[in-house]
Amino acid sequence: MRLLPALYWILAVASLAAGGWPQWGGPTRNFQVPDAGLATSWTDQGPKRLWKRDIGFGHSSILVDDGGQRLYTMYRSGDDEVVISLDANTGQTLWEFRYPAPFLSGMNMDVGPGPHATASYFPAQK
Fold first, then answer.
1. DSSP secondary structure string, 33-94?
2. Residue among 94, 95, 101 nearest 116 (CA)
């Protein structure tokens, strides 16, 4: 199992990202976070780690809801791909949705088994 490296970066900015991080690349798909008082430098220890957990292999981005309280990502578990929602403050699983995704003959897995996609987050209409 591997920890998604982007998780640390997203957790550091989760509460600062105006409107959340609802899709691959952020709100405007440019991978930029509006300046919201982000540190310009860190100590040698880096930013404070809020939590850490392992999940399966995948290439999915981390999404953040518009309140900064929930994270969403995808990973592989055996022959399944899994969409997972996590509590941003604790890392605890809120829910998971699994679906079969067996490897098919001829699929190119040179960069790893995937998933090779990112879910999308659509806030509830008010």
1. ---SS--S---TT-SPP-----B----PPPEE-TTS-EEEEEEEETTEEEEEEEETTT--EE
2. 101
Assigned token pair, 100: 């079969």
Tokens of 89: 């403050």
Q: How many Cβ atoms sit within 10 Å of the Cβ of residue 70? A: 19
Domain boundaries, the chain: 1-28+50-126
pLDDT of 94 over the 70 cut: yes
Contact status, residue 94 vs residue 88, Cβ threshold 8 Å = no
Confidence grade of residue 19 (pLDDT, cut at 50, 70, 90): low
**105: which 2 tokens?**
């003959």
What distance in Å separates the CA atoms of residue 125 and residue 75, rounded to the nearest whole number?
Answer: 28
Helix (H) or strand (E) holding 9: helix 6-13
